[in-house]
Model the fold of this input.
Amino acid sequence: MNRFGIIGHRIMNNKHERLILYISLATILSTSVLFISLPIFDCAKVKRIVPELNLSQLCHADVSENQWEYIVIHHSATEKGNAARFDDYHRKKRKWEHGLAYHFVIGNGSFSGDGEIEVSERWKKQIHGAHTANMNCNRVAIGICLVGDFENGGTPTNNQFESLVALVQYLSRRYNISLSDVLLHKQVFQKGTACPGKNFPFAEFKTRLLRIASKTNNSHIAF
Done:
């Protein structure tokens, strides 16, 4: 091979090696970014709020506590909202004396925090709910509403789901409410409703509660 041929061959090898090096570096860099960012962001969304919940303080009532027997899960059927907005609607449009129908509202980040648990005056005063069409149920059922429309494509956010699990577990133990008495709104005997929507992950929700109960030797949840 002549001198020019050797030089050309080395140049081609050098270009080829540089190309491989650049591709390798780009692949390592992109993989590292995905590895670092995705799990951290996903976990942070769940863990940032839930460990900070002081449920004992949050669920404190100003009067003697009612003998609650059920927990009923709802969705707001709206993409946005919070306790104050729902309270205003229930007072002005529904003409309900005590306003907000639910005892707790869990935000989705629209007008309250993502996973934030808002406590209503009904809970603080231990007043029956107005969250189902069955008044007998309302007298003994705690109403929890998640902001969102889970019938038409939406699902609870990670933080909403985690806050709901924590809140229901706490209330279930506090009032000795069995898992079978944690209901979806549509399971209450009343006129038909799709609430909290076909996309609410009820099976996963109950599975989480079962797992928590199985890890707690002194759990008061009956199954």
Summary: The chain has seven helices and five strands.
